[in-house]
Design a protein that fits this description.
Rossmann fold, binds iron/sulfur cluster, 11% strand, 13 helices, six-stranded mixed beta sheet, binds zinc ion, 321 residues, alpha/beta, globular
């Protein structure tokens, strides 16, 4: 991860990672220290948690969600995990194992939902049945079930592992289309409001390279493979674009996102408040909804009535969209 012979900026011991945006190299201990500091800075700056918050972490088995769970526990927070079995073939089976082992080895509480068993569908089937792209059906499903589990379990904060690369890529996509509604809500903390839990992204100051390195140094075993349905996902293209800008000009990615939060997000706050007023309650599940029946309940109805579709059939380039 670094040049042979380079030294830690802090203690001059051999470095294990170079971080061009900090213009420095770090040894394992001081790299971990830097990550902790970045997370604490985000928590403090954005007022992410109250001391008595009961936290639920959305866990996928990948580096970001396991890193954020680990970091929050290390910083002294109470946090349980929630894993959703999306039914994306072998990928889901393997990812469940990583989440389960992480929790079991540390004596942590992991709530598990299986879409096929609990709601009668999986993501490949939902994508085919609704003619949505898989990530759209998946995102809708995850958002709803994470929110619902947090509310039902009495959790006061729902944490996701979104990192700086994720947020900057989404920001680039939303900016290129001037999606003002999405931009107004693209915040590292969304306060609780009628029927939604508080949503928090403590990793917004860490890149995905840093969260991966956190896991490696801490000995956390995580699923490296990408979801097979991610291929062609617009965000991946935006990440590549931002990475090439970052390579030319280290620090650009963080400046793009963090300066948006400082300078632009406050100007959009009024728009965000207007949108919040517009919600009603789903007559089927009681969740906040833009219409009489929420999008999740409509998705369940359509997808659970469809014959199961294997993941290969909806992957891009194989009849998927
Ligand atoms: Fe779901 Fe898309 Fe992520 Fe796969 S890549 S887990 S389909 S959102
Ligand atoms: Zn050091
Ligand atoms: Zn509903």
């Amino acid at each position: 991860m670094t040049n042979v012979g380079s030294k830690c900026r802090v203690c001059k011991a051999p470095a294990i990672i170079d971080l061009p945006r900090h213009n420095a190299n770090f040894c394992a201990d001081h790299f971990l220290e830097l990550c902790r500091r970045q997370v604490v800075k985000a928590i403090d700056h954005f007022g992410m948690f109250e001391p008595d918050d009961k936290i639920l972490v959305a866990v996928s088995g990948g580096k970001d969600s396991l890193a954020v769970w680990d970091l929050l526990l290390e910083l002294g927070y109470r946090a349980d995990g929630l894993y959703i079995g999306l039914g994306i073939g072998e990928y889901s089976e393997v990812s469940a194992g990583y989440a389960q082992r992480f929790a079991a080895e540390r004596g942590l509480h992991l709530i598990e939902i299986k879409l096929r068993d609990d709601f009668g569908y999986d993501i490949p089937t939902a994508a085919r049945a609704t003619r949505r792209v898989p990530c759209s059906a998946c995102g809708l499903t995850k958002r709803h079930l994470f929110d619902q589990a947090a509310i039902d379990g009495g959790y006061t904060a729902l944490v996701t592992g979104h990192n700086l690369d994720d947020e900057a890529a989404v920001l680039l996509g939303n900016t290129m289309r001037w999606e003002i509604g999405y931009l107004a809500r693209q915040l590292p903390v969304l306060p609780a409001r009628n029927g939604f839990p508080k949503k928090v992204k403590p990793l917004v100051r860490l890149t995905e390279r840093e969260t991966a390195a956190w896991c490696v140094v801490r000995g956390i075993d995580y699923l490296v493979d990408e979801c097979p349905m991610a291929a062609g996902n617009r965000h991946l293209g935006h990440k590549d674009t931002l990475n090439s800008i970052e390579a030319q000009s280290p620090g650009s990615k963080a400046a793009f996102y963090l300066n948006f939060l400082e300078r632009m997000a406050p100007l959009l706050a009024a728009h965000s408040a207007e949108e919040r007023e517009a919600l009603q309650t789903c007559t089927r599940c009681g969740a906040p909804s833009a219409g009489e029946v929420c999008a999740f309940c409509r998705l369940v109805e359509t997808a659970s009535a469809h014959d199961p579709v294997p993941v290969e059939l909806v992957m891009r380039g194989k009849g998927g969209r």
